[in-house]
Structure formats: structure tokens, C-alpha cells
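R.M. (postdoc): so does anyone remember the format we settled on? I'll just put the C-alpha cells first.
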């Protein structure tokens, strides 16, 4: 096994508990904006519609099909349509309020802090995320993850998106290091694992749901705590 110096982490779904934090935020918004009165009072239908829509839009963003502004402009229009709510009555501040509330939520994935405590004394830790600057920095601060990481690379501050190898090259250039010294840890087979492979960086596929993938990573784990057994 290589002796690594730099560990690159994805943020959403890998360290920061995206699904739980989004659910909490949407639950608040559903009540505060009385969204159930706009056609369907079922929050679970609304949440499911968001999950499906958001996943599709982020996959399109990762592939360069839509940009940041298009993603945010389209998101709740498509969610409302899918959830059978009146699109014409979407509160104008809903998207902005969603971003602000969600990025302030503190939940992290199981064993995140214990694992990072173990790794921090042994490696230099960094973030490589396709998220946007303000929201990702807010997430790191609100969850108290920020103190663990030296370099934060986003699609916005680098100009590139995973799986484009250039976002990894950008990080290595900032750190004045080479691929052989680095390891990428993330939950997305395409953006994290294939992306790191494109940059010739070893990878850890964090796969808590044990989903099947055609991509073969260097390592696979189902719990973050398993990192302590391979690092």
C-alpha cells in the first residue's frame, strides 16, 4: 500500500450528512411557507420530489449540462411540478432560504469526527467538492468540520468540476505535490472515484448503501471508521 501524505475528502454525503440536513431544512420550509396549501399537503411526497429532482440536476451539473444559476433556477420549479404543487405560487425567496437554512445544519455522517481525529495527526486533510463556495464553507463551519482541513477546493474556486481531472490537478498544484502522495475519499462513483482515477490518484469508495458500481476503486468501505483500518 502506498504511503500517502494528502487525503482529499468529498463533503456532501461523505462527511456532511446531506440527506438528513436537507430533510430538516425542507421540513421547516414546508411549514413556514405553508407549502401544503399549494396543492398537496403530503411532506413525504414533497421531499421525495426534491430528492429525485436534486439528484438529476446535480448529475447534470457534474456533467456540465447545467451551470450553478440554471440549477438553482430550475430546482424548485421541477420539485413543485413533480410534487403536484402550484408552480406559479413558488415563494420567490424559497431557493435562497433553502440554501441558507440547509448550509447552517450541523449533522455529519456516522463516525466522521472520530475518524477525522484519527487521521488528522497522521495526514494532511483537504476537501475537493463540486459544491459552491458560500454554501460549502457554511456547511463546514456549522458542522464544526472546518478545523480539520487545510485546503478547500470547490468547483467554483477552481473553475473545474469532478470528474474533470483538472480539479484534482488544481489541488495538487496548490499543495505542490503529486498524485502518488494523494488519496481521494468520496461516495460518488463518477465524480469522486472516476475523477480521481482520471488524475491517477488512488481512491476510497465510501459506499454505506452498498450500491453496485462498474467502477473499480482502490478501496471500498461501508463505514467511515473503516478508514482507520487501511490508513
Amino acid at each position: 500500500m502506498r504511503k500517502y501524505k494528502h487525503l482529499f475528502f468529498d463533503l456532501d454525503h461523505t462527511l456532511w450528512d446531506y440527506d438528513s440536513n436537507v430533510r430538516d431544512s425542507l421540513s421547516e420550509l414546508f411549514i413556514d411557507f405553508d407549502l401544503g396549501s399549494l396543492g398537496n399537503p403530503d411532506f413525504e411526497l414533497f421531499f421525495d420530489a426534491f430528492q429525485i429532482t436534486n439528484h438529476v440536476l446535480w448529475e447534470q451539473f457534474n456533467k456540465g449540462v447545467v451551470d450553478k444559476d440554471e440549477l438553482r433556477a430550475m430546482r424548485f420549479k421541477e420539485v413543485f411540478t413533480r410534487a403536484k404543487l402550484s408552480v406559479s405560487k413558488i415563494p420567490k425567496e424559497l431557493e435562497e432560504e433553502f440554501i441558507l437554512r440547509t448550509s447552517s445544519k450541523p449533522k455529519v455522517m456516522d463516525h466522521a469526527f472520530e475518524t477525522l481525529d484519527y487521521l488528522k495527526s497522521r495526514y494532511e486533510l483537504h476537501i475537493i467538492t463540486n459544491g459552491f463556495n458560500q454554501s460549502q464553507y457554511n456547511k463546514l463551519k456549522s458542522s464544526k468540520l472546518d478545523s480539520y482541513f487545510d485546503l478547500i477546493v470547490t468547483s467554483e474556486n477552481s473553475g473545474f468540476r469532478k470528474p474533470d481531472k483538472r480539479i484534482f490537478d488544481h489541488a495538487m498544484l496548490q499543495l505542490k505535490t503529486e498524485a502518488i502522495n494523494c488519496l481521494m475519499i468520496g461516495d460518488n462513483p463518477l465524480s469522486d472515484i472516476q475523477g480521481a482515477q482520471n488524475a491517477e490518484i488512488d481512491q476510497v469508495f465510501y459506499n454505506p448503501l452498498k450500491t453496485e458500481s462498474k467502477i473499480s476503486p482502490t478501496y471500498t468501505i461501508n463505514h467511515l471508521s473503516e478508514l482507520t483500518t487501511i490508513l
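R.M.: ...and that's the designed sequence above, right after the C-alpha cells. Also worth knowing: The mean pLDDT is 96. The radius of gyration is 18 Å.
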